[in-house]
Design a protein that fits this description.
alpha+beta; Tumour Suppressor Smad4; Alpha-Beta Plaits; 8-stranded mixed β-sheet; 19 strands; Adenylate cyclase 2; lyase; Adenylyl/Guanylyl_Cyclase_3/4; adenylate cyclase activity; Nucleotide_cyclase
């Protein structure tokens, strides 16, 4: 069994974008404070780990997830570091290379999300990915000591230990968080995409084919979103959420295009899956796009920042996607997104105005909806 943990030299698009959009100065201002906190946490960790917990890697394991493999020569620990996602497979282009003939070339992916959860995503592998003996068909959040199976290889997932629960460790106060959170109020666009009639699909396909189809969809969705300057911020069952971070006050014309160009590519990819797999019907997706201010937080560390967005702008994007089912449309966008599109193309927009009532909101909310056919024609219009 061989392994290759060399991180990809490419900088994730969302981190490169953030570095260019006013975050560097603020991060540098907080760096000294972050170093002080990191030093405090490390000192507490060193004091807490006085017994042979596992191996020489034990101290690091308290602060980052690891994979534990059983090899012919004993245990091997693979730290998940240097990135926010790690691909697993036989191919040499993976972050973690496992020489298992029963594995696919690109078999699965582990992705660490903004709030610290680590998700397992099967990448459409032929023989599937399993968590505690159960085949994975949609991304699943991993728990400490979950047993992962790829082909004939078993790997144990070890989550970071909660330092506040380690004997001898004194929890830092609210004014001194163990992970330095960097929160900024930023203008963002949020895209939420959902596979339609997923329940019907689960009833129509056997588990193996379903897992391969959905795994392929998630893999391709992640690639498309990255190609258009964002990243998958959340997996929610059969849906994904992506975030584009804009300038401080306004959305540029090129920026407002990116979620919709990504959405068009997602629609095309989804509608063509039935040419590859024997599906009972062509797959469809629905989407909500919303633009507005939100708190963008760094929930990672000083060595590996990881950004996520929180707030009503994000919640509204999910509600817009849900609204498309009520309206019988493919896409729904919020008011600020609609106004950004008007700045780009004037009044020649395919979106019609609707009033929708969302749970928890006292008043109706405007939503602007259209079909994918309308979106395709719209994106072909000269700027």
């Amino acid at each position: 069994m061989s392994k290759d943990l060399s991180p990809s030299p490419a900088i994730p698009p969302h981190l490169a974008s953030l570095s260019r959009t006013h975050l560097i100065e603020i991060i540098l201002q907080q760096q000294q404070r972050i170093d002080q906190l990191t030093s405090s946490v490390q000192s507490a960790t060193d004091a807490a780990v006085s017994s042979p917990l596992t191996s020489p890697f034990a101290q690091e394991s308290l602060q980052q997830p690891n994979l534990r493999l059983q090899t012919k020569t004993g245990e091997s620990f693979l730290p998940l570091e240097g990135s926010s996602f790690w691909t697993i497979g036989r191919g040499s282009d993976n972050s973690i290379v496992l020489n298992d003939q029963w594995m696919s070339r690109n078999h699965a992916m582990l992705q660490q999300m903004g709030m610290g959860e680590t998700y397992l995503i099967d990448l459409g592998s032929h023989n599937g990915s399993f968590v505690n003996g159960r085949r994975v068909s949609v991304p699943i959040a991993l728990q400490h000591q979950d047993l992962l199976t790829f082909g004939q290889t078993n790997v144990e997932f070890l989550a970071p230990v909660n330092l506040s629960e380690v004997s001898g460790y004194e929890t830092l106060t609210a004014e001194e968080p163990a992970t330095a959170l960097l929160h900024l109020r930023r203008l963002i666009s949020v895209l939420v995409v959902d596979i339609r009639n997923f329940t019907g699909l689960t009833h129509s396909l056997d588990e193996r084919l379903l897992s391969e189809v959905v795994g392929t969809w998630f893999r391709c969705a992640g690639e498309i979103i990255r190609d258009h300057g964002s990243w998958v911020d959340k997996y929610i069952g059969d849906a994904v959420m992506a975030v584009w971070i804009h300038g401080a006050q306004e959305v540029g014309i090129e920026e407002i295009q990116r979620p919709f160009l990504a959405l068009q590519a997602l629609h095309k990819m989804t509608s063509e899956l039935h040419h590859t797999y024997p599906l009972p019907f062509p797959l469809r997706i629905g989407a909500g796009v919303n633009t507005g201010h939100a708190m963008v937080g760094n929930t990672g560390s000083s060595e590996r920042p990881d950004y996520t967005a929180l707030g009503d702008t994000v919640n509204a994007a999910f509600r817009l996607e849900t609204s498309t089912k009520q309206l019988g449309l493919d896409i729904a966008v919020g008011l600020e997104t609609y106004q950004g599109l008007k700045q780009w193309q004037g009044d020649c927009l395919p979106f019609r105005r609707y009033s929708v009532r969302w749970k928890g909101y006292e008043e109706t909310t405007p939503a602007y909806g259209c079909s994918f056919a309308d979106l395709t024609l719209f994106l072909q219009m000269p700027s």
